[in-house]
Structure formats: structure tokens, C-alpha cells
Amino acid sequence: MIRYALIACSILFLACQPKEEASTEHVVDGVARAYDKTLTWEELSAIIPDQSSEEDSIMLAERYINDWLKLQVMLHTAETNLPEEEKKFEQELENYRNTLLTYAYENTFVQQRLDTNLTEAEVNAYYEQNQEIFSLNDYIVKVKFCILAKDTPKLKRFRKLFESEESEDLVKLEQFCVDYGASYYVDVEEWMYFEDLLQQVPLEVYNVESFLKKKPSTEFEKSDKMYFVSVLDYKLKDGVSPIDLVEDQIRNLIINKRKKELLTNMREQLYKDALARNEVEKMTDNE
To answer: Which end of the chain has fewer CB atoms at under 10 Å, N or C?
Structure first.
């Protein structure tokens, strides 16, 4: 009980001190021991957030101490019982370290040197040269739709706005929907997957291709709602995706290609430079 009280007081002291000012060398040498290892106050204080309450500090410390002790018991048990051949991790650790070092350097190198600027001409050229990888896996549409309550007033005005192709009427249509709390989609220049449209508008479509080819404009009622839908454009499944749908994908592909080329060239240049400085060589048996 005396030691626990000392631990609690020490934890509270640590929690109330800034990390750079907290000193524990005169409190207790260590807070826990497991075999030949000691958990120090410095290690424990590092996990306690600044300005923690007494209750939170003690709870965090107690949990950390228990977890640390259990881990040491597990490690000691494994070390004691495993055959020597199953404890040889030197190569795995070396490979892991090499991977981490290489990744860290390459990541820094890429951040400093990779050109991520792309012109529209570059994007268009990549699209034209690689259309086979941009096949559509679903039908897509350019569409506008509105979902109104059955008792929405001024429907005559609404229909006139909905059927209009004028950009200023599209703005008025959006405002009408806002004013009367209607759900709507009027981004008429954006492509939408047909399946996503069906998630919002309960169209009964038995043959998607035939339906789309009619480029329908329709309205219907269901439950207490009125649905207005107008398909403005479409692309059929298995066709080539329009460039504006895959532009972000193209940009990522081009940048990733640049990144691979940058790293390949960097590795080759480093190797050539090391050879020239006689820092590396191939050792062959000439006997």
C-alpha cells in the first residue's frame, strides 16, 4: 500500500509537470521490474498526456504497467522455450530495416523532385493512346431530377423550369427546389452511374439500353412523392469512358509512371556513381 501510494503521488507529480521539466530521478528508480529489465519513470511519464487529471493519470499508468509486465512475461517465456533455430530473426530484421530505409529515402527523393504538373494535352494524349483500359463497367448518364412532395405548389412554373434548357432557368429550378424542400440533382455536365441514379429515383427499367436510347424525360408518382427525371446524355456499358469521367485516374496514372521512372533513374545513377568511385565492385573468381 505504501508503494502504491508513492506511485500514485509520483504519477500525479509527473502529470502536473511539463514533460521537459519533469524529473523523476529522486522519486523512484523504476516503476516495474521483469526479470533483468526495468520500466523507468521516464518511459512511463512519456505516455501520460500533459495536464491529465489524477484519476486519468493513475488509470493510464496502471494499465501501461500491467501491459508492460505481461509483455515481458510473454517475451521471456518465448525466449526460454523456443529452439535456437526459431529465434534467428537477424535476416528478417535486416530486410525489414532495409525496406524502411529505402522507402524513407525514396519517399523524400520523390517529394523533392517529382513533377506533378500536367497539361491538358498530356491528359488527352494518354486518353487517346490507352482507351482500352478505360472501358465502362456500367451505364452512365448526364441527368437532372427533382423529387417533390405531392402538395408542392406552383407545379406549372416548376415544369416550365424543369423542361427548359436555358442555364438561367436551371439556376431558378435549383432555387425552387431549395424553397420547397425538394431533393434535386442538376449537375447536368457531370456523369452519373445509372445504378446510382436508381438508388435515388425508383425508375422501373427492364431494358437499360432501350430506356437510355430514348433519352427519356418522365414524371411519375410513388408514395407521397412526385419524381421528375430527364436523361440528357448517356454512354452504354462496355463502351469507352468519356475523358472527363476518368481524368483524375489518368492524372494518377501519368504521375505514377513519372514516379517509377524517376526512382529507376535515381537507382541506376547512384549505382553508376558508386562504381565510378570504386565504392562497389563485382567480386569474381579469376582462377
So the answer is: C
Cell of 87: 529465434
Burial class (CB in 10 A: 0-12, 13-18, 19+), 126: buried
| pLDDT at residue 282, rounded to an integer | 79
For the ranges 10-24, 123-137, 151-165, 248-262, the lowest mean pLDDT is seen at: 10-24
Distant-in-sequence, close-in-space partners of 196: CB < 8 Å, separation ≥ 6 = none
What kind and span of H or E run contains 167?
helix 167-179
Q: What is the grid cell recorded at 25?
A: 530521478
- Relative to beta strand 37-39, strand 140-149 is unpaired
Report which of 134, 190, 180, 189 is spatially closest to residue 157, judged by C-alpha positions.
180
DSSP-assigned beta bridge partners for residue 141: 192, 234
Q: Which three cell numbers, joined as nine digits, stand for 101?
A: 530505409
DSSP-derived secondary structure for 172-214: HHHHHHHHTT-EEE--TTS-EEHHHHHHHS----S-HHHHHHT
Side chain identity, residue 60: L
AA letter at 89: F
Q: What is the DSSP string of 247-272?
A: HHHHHHHHHHHHHHHHHHHHHHHHHH
Is residue 80 within 8 Å of 36, Cβ to Cβ?
no
Does 63 score more than 50 pLDDT?
yes
With beta carbons less than 8 A apart as the criterion, state whether 269 and 160 touch: no
CB atoms within 10 A of CB 143: 24
